Amino acid sequence: MTTLTAPPTATAAATRIPQVNNRIGIRQTMSTSLTMAYRGILKIKHKPEQLFDVTIQPILFTALFTYIFGGAIAGNVHDYLPILIPGILVQTVVLTSVVTGTQLREDMDKGVFDRFKSLPIARVSALAGALIADMVRYGIATVLTVVVGICLGYRPGGGALGVLAAAVVIVLCSFAISWIWALVGVTGKSAASVQGISMMVMFPLTFMSGAFALVSTMPGWMQAINHANPVYYMVNACRELMNGNVYGSNLAWSLLGSLVVIAIFAPLTVKAYMRRA
Which residues are listed as membrane-spanning (predicted)? Predict the structure, then answer.
């Protein structure tokens, strides 16, 4: 008995096994990073309590600080609003950037990033997506703070263009600062420790930056420290933009400082993240 073997068909001959390639291009990396950013926004949708710090805090703090410190610092609420609103805008958004490191640490502790490692995506996409999604939170905090200020009687002398420029500067600077907290989140031991360290650093920098009272009324040694405080330049830049649409040296220092922070901390964060991811 003879066994006949069927000749290979043309379809089988044409089918080729794709080559395995570990390299992921920049275009695909950007695409997966945006997908991860969308995931971060969906997390807000399913857990709206994550928005408390960018919704309740701007409303509560702006109203409280206006009526508590307005009379004591500027004599009345009306004269205090041009000082307070740009300052509390910076304070709100900068403190919101701390959440970046905390959420990264929580995702790593829960094993979410271990799941991402099994997906055919660039490893850095999860990190980049989280940072991009947080920019939405900064935008929400910025809009709410300005709206509350206008409701309380604040009328920005710089007009809509000055307010918009200040909002863009704040979001960009906070994005730069979030790289610092992302590094703390990646290298920290727990989400609680990351939040504790971040707040311990940011609260003194924010409160002595002149966000709530003019720096000229502070002791000389504190004024000298403020010249090395990045939040000080952010507050002054936003105050000049919102109150007079002025593009001065404070704005230049804020943007230059942001670029320096990104240049230093972005590679360090990515390197630390890749070592653990």
Answer: 51-74, 80-100, 160-184, 196-215, 251-270
Q: Provide CB contacts within 8 A for 189, sequence distance 6+.
A: none
* Chain CA centroid to CA 16, Å: 46
For every one of its 277 residues, what pLDDT tens digit does the chain have, with 9 covering 90 and above?
A: 445 455 555 554 555 655 555 667 778 888 888 888 888 888 777 777 777 777 888 888 888 888 998 888 888 888 999 999 999 889 888 888 888 788 888 878 887 777 777 777 777 787 788 888 888 888 888 898 899 999 999 999 989 999 999 999 998 898 888 888 888 888 888 888 888 888 888 888 888 888 888 888 889 998 999 888 889 999 999 999 999 989 989 999 999 999 999 899 988 988 888 776 6
In terms of phi and psi (left: phi > 0; alpha: psi -120 to 50; beta: otherwise), the region of 210 is: left
Tell me if 59 sits within 8 A of 69, measured CB to CB.
Answer: no
Q: What is the DSSP string of 162-222?
A: HHHHHHHHHHHHHHHHHHHHHHHHHH-S-HHHHHHHHHHHHHHHHHTTTSSS-GGGS-HHH
Give which of 86, 252, 243, 253 is closest to 161, Cα–Cα.
243
Q: CA angle, 130 as apex, 136 and 88 as ends, to 5°?
A: 45
